[in-house]
């Protein structure tokens, strides 16, 4: 690619992924409302408030691929969720439509289905059961993405990220952990594939106790390589084991199900 | 019931349903941003802009059932959709939560799945394929409803209305027609049932050529009684038959799939 | 048939069915541990304690069809359940094997699946979820029946009876009611069919709010004719409507789920 | 339609259907290798040997709809099956492709799945289990039809005819009977529908003991009206009931499963 | 755990597992009707006849986990099966209920589904098809376990053991073998998991030709490590290959399907 | 085996497989219409035109296993397809029936389902969607094979070969490649298994991006060992990547979907 846009590039996930994606394009454009350290030789930063259509349009112009990590990524008051994840996503999609439909990797979330019990195994077609307003905003996002695919042919990977961290740190993450390396190789595979469509993809490593089934996705030629099981002993030593009545042991979304509807 | 709230009561659907629901409660509260003619002996009107949390709260207070027909019901610019169907629905749900979780009949839409071809038969778990921003807002609404059910036990019937008119008027409506009588008997059954949960319900009559499968719903004890087939001859005489390449003959959402993304 | 055996013939269900089955055979043998009034011209009574192998053998000898209503039909202490429904059923099957494998109609029960919520719709392959020791004994019975079919070709209809009474009497029975007429016509169809195999059959009338799906059974040519809906008004007038937290409104097995493990 | 072609028009099925289809087109062309009595005012006969490409081409020219009943319809030696149903069908499809892709009603057969036991209930996607060379030739035909639909957009209804006779005459036909009236109304619905695609359709009336499931087809707006059950008493009086070991009681294809591979 | 109870500890399977489970608890209580050699430093033996409620109660008291291997494990006369596996299991469950619901690992069996052909692949919800009275008693056991889970929350792993031996010894065991190591790691995972519920688990190693599908179980974080394939050459050299008509080549339960109903 | 017949032995696939199958039988009979170099010490050549029943009969006589690679393997005019793959297969099956039903490995093809999009994952029961006349002839072949299995018990493995070459050479073959080694080990497993039946088997290696699901086949004890992924770098360097609108990127059958109906 000539230019790959990474939104939310100044966030934790953006910083972790940037070096791993550097070779995917001649230029990596870092979009964020916050300043992003430009560290790579082919990186450029562009300030952008996702709520402003003209700013999003300028950011997307000239890019032939988008990794959309921007917006709200935790539970927040509803007006912030609307601004960042609902209006913001609409602005991004309108900009992509105006600029040639560059392929999009959309950071969706396991919190779209967080109320399923941990004993369920889910495929991509399980109905939404969001665990908070943040999760609902990602349901909105996946629905909007599907609309633009059906109406305009806008391709996107809807990646329901589990827990994307350096290493798994609690019992739930033995199931939900998504290594930075596996996320990067998934992004590479999604851009490499001649056809992408608009699939739901579970963003999770090859963990022994994974709840999610990516077997519908074999055509993509991507296989997760890491396995949270390697950290089990460390976790069982360091982390308190949740009792069976706790949300961390009951629901796939874990403690998000305990969140109140957030008001400031 | 003591008091049943009907939002959007001044609209076409509200006016058609009101006489049929009059016996369900001692008082029928008609909520709308526009004035609603108070015609029934037990009706009362209350002005309400769904975008104002305090107004919604006042409208919901004292009601033990809600038929939510309010908001945008056609394709409109995105900011109107956000205000009426996203912020507005959040306000309604927060008000219901504050006032004892009265059961809600939520007017969702077939436009949540409008991009499926007419040769598909859908059950309630088919993934969303909205056919416009209006449809996406209803996907948001169903997701929010599911969240409040899982988190707070708020019961609701998510009624994906087909074409709710006095009679079917074109070829597509031979499949999608939902008679006023069948909608009214569904609302009655949903309030009557000891348990409701949060089911997706296809709002459609017992049409010979119906695309949607309500067989998951037999526990409710509701059966549609009307059948659009009775109007076939009249329609075939009066309405132009769509050619196979037209959206009216291809997609379940019909001409909505032709809509552009609406901008004013 | 020459001789049809009805076990448990002195019980309420036996008495209700006998006149309706009189034409199925030249002689109707009434088997029961209690005396059964011989009222029909072609009826004969035979005393039998199901716990005694020799008594069961004598009762079965010479019969070319069996309607097995005998044994325990309510929650009772475990030793009674073992004697009547576990040892008793084994004795019946051994006797049938010794006497030419006469076709068996086995009165199983909805209490084999009583813990499913009322909002589920079940087909014949749903795993067991019994609601008491009585229900467990019927799970045993269905398993034994399947064994004798696979090993010896013993055909049987495993009829999971809902609520077989003169008329439906409470809200749950709007879903579970099985009219005497429909049971009788099912028995006739099961004996008439050239091949029976060993199917699970939901013993339920054509109620609007039925939870159970007999669509796997169309080959049998049997259709229930009655519908509990005809009694709704009477029930809604006379019977207390269960609140949503009550087992009568939550579980398919109704109040059986409230039963303790019975000890005398 | 201007001109509707009925092949095999001189056969029993052709003769029964012709009066019922007379209003579908201005001219009804009767194609057959045998002379067909021209009885209707708008009928014309055209001689055609399906094995001759040029003859088939001439017969198809000028028609805007085809009801293909021609070819072999019983078990015959393999070379006859190849000529009539394999080469013949290829010729018909090539002619249709050359003349504007007129919609085709293809008389397939229950003998494509005749080896399924009668206790199975089949949907349209059950893998083939033909019961003879005739059945295999219809598997070929459905496969060829699907190819021409995917490659050229040739629409066709693949009607797996059960037993299309004036009335049901044996126990198996209580399940498989397809009345002439229901076949005619199906043909009308298939030509009327704006879109047809290439669906498998079970050609069977609304028999109580039907084995086949047309519920995928509700979009077509066709419902069978007749029911073989009305003849049960007559059949049980006049026809010998098959014993359970007989193919007429075991397999959906009935006695066809007993046929040897036919050699002359 | 403080104290883990292993019933049937004097049997072959008990002796094989004991050293592998020694670290799971401070004390390992060995329950059996036969004397069990106390060989481990933290083992204690307790005599128990499962048919005696008071004896079972005493054995269970003070244990916070149970591995239930006791009872009949081969085909035996019905009265022995009733005593050991039906009354005995009821006694065990009543004792567990009286003593705080310690988690149970229940040794169920592949003989609950032994009549399925070897060419079927089974998930946990396949209906029972037991291959003998022993198998029926395990169907009873799984049903009782489900009852106590639904009614009282008693958690249990229902392990359908294949062939748990030191190494696989015949062709069928290439599919059914369950290594001692894999069983021990499964038991550890079942006690370790914060939530267990009442799942059916196929007790089988990671054999290339395994018939059973544990993919519903990924949340448990257990993976079998051994593979019978490593013994194929040895088996093909030493064991007679069954001909296709033999039960060892036809049914999942193997030679158990040949057993008569056992009488002494 | 005493004698294994390989038809089409002079073709590319035949030549590649022969050395790998040499140990399966004392004698390897090479059947082909073209001369086959006899290179192995236990090979014998026999000329055979599949269109001649007597020649096929002579070739099959005395063989106790058949690997049927003969016939047309690319798109050709319809009369050649009929002769080689329809009449020829019938002749082979009739010969096998006359000579004791030796087990058959039938080289079917992915072109039976070539019109499915590459984003679908198929199991063995997906309805046929052939991509040409060659593909249709293989649909015929699988249907005929199923008939002879149901009617006569003729066992066969219906191997839908992907791309059986020395190494994968383009992007599509990263999904479809079937190594010679994996095909040989599959043949060995199919002859080794006590029971074979008549399964559909995807002939494909363990490629990361495989579209086809063999999980129904675990009872066979066969696992593919090779993985096309090892050649990805080489392919991405040497082969042009198809654009998303090309059949090579859209359909499972690849460029076969572009073929016209072949006429000479």
TrEMBL record, chains A, B, C, D, E, F:
The keyword Plastid does not apply. This is NAD(P)-dependent oxidoreductase. Keywords: NAD, Oxidoreductase, Plasmid. CDD domains: SDR_e. Coiled coil: none annotated. Belongs to the NAD(P)-dependent epimerase/dehydratase family. The keyword Protein transport does not apply. Residues 5-163 form the NAD-dependent epimerase/dehydratase domain. InterPro entries: Epimerase_deHydtase, NAD(P)-bd_dom_sf. It holds the Pfam family Epimerase.
